[in-house]
Write a structure and sequence with these properties.
Elements lengths: L2 H6 L14 H6 L1 E4 L17 E6 L2 E7 L7 E4 L2 E7 L7 E7 L5 E7 L5 E8 L2 E7 L6 E6 L7 E5 L4 E5 L2 E10 L2 E10 L4 E2 L3 E6 L3 E8 L5 E6 L19 E5 L6 E5 L10 E5 L4 E5 L2 E6 L4 E7 L4 E9 L3 E8 L4 E7 L13 H20 L5 E6 L2
Antiparallel strand pairs: 1-21, 2-3, 2-28, 4-5, 5-6, 6-7, 8-9, 9-10, 10-11, 12-13, 13-14, 14-15, 14-16, 16-17, 17-18, 18-19, 19-20, 21-22, 22-23, 23-24, 25-26, 26-27
Length: about 375
Amino acid sequence: MSLSLFQKHPQKFTLFLYIGFVIILLFLSIRIDRTKETTNTNLPTQTTSKIFVIKKGDEILYSKKLTSYGYEVVRWHDWLFYTRPNANRASETDIVGLNMKTSERNVLMQNNDTKRQITTLSILNDTLYISFGGQFAEGKMYWTKLPTLNSPKELISMPNPQISFVHKRYWIIGGEGDACWHEGYYAPFDPFTHTIGPIITTHEGCKTGGEAFVGIDKQGRVIVAQHPIQPELFQVKTLYDAPSFSRIVAIEPHTLERKVLLSKEKMPDNIVEIHFDSNRESLLLMGPKIYAYDIGQNKLTYFTSSNEHWVRSEIIRWNNDGICISLWNKQGKQIIIPHSFTNNALNCSINSSPQANDEQDALQKTQQYIQDLHLPKGYNAEIEGQ
């Protein structure tokens, strides 16, 4: 599914899912990063002076700092749904439905819980979904069939729930965490019957080990990476001091049956980050030595070694020709590691910095977001402060 489908058939099948962390990464790759907070509660703040604004004439309907993690705005036919501060109580937030043709406005819901935020508005199958979340706040998802605009009904209670479409299946995914602690929730979802399957839960504790979410494969299995208890976690000085993963497991979503893909005996030592390519169903296992694991063929391949003690990694390119890995050390120096699958050399372009990449990503995604909204005459979506 893509935005081109929305542009061709908005009345039949529309989905706005600009979510940080879980959703977008599932389509491309998913990284487990042992050096940063893993949390879905407050999406990362990107340093920028640019503002995304929606206006009706001179009236500002919605504004937010530029981000690649999406905006609480969605369009359905002539209706625009968005969040705004309550006119009388600035600490509260309203969800407003505005008919851009007739100027009719309706407040669908109000959020008067200061600990909780409205994190996502999305439309699927002529249904509006509203997600609430926040750090250590009760997360919920509601739905209402359009265009009735009836009082939204509760669908699920889960920390920071979001809808994701992965390999022709829908999921509700949530989670929260802080520093070395994290919990994730993954449940199959049927948007036509509003039926939710068993919830798969992952948990990582600061001194208790646990499981980290890796991705969802083409069979619909949830792939997790396990790591053991390591009390020395709070003494981490470099990435290589962090707990390493010991096993890769696949969980069947309906029966919850578990299958070990990569056992403790076969798992390479000191793997501290994992990248997942869902289309190739391959894992890149990152540590002092770098390996690839093909899920379908159950094949582990050694790629290369890194002489640098890096603190962040990124996949620049991963295709049939090879893979380009970008590493940053504590001083901010970037190291490019190319690995060709052929006899030809790879052209691995060097990005300036993680922050610059994030800002450019936010700008490009917001520009695409504006195009997809395709607002009528009299309304304008723009980026200010450029």
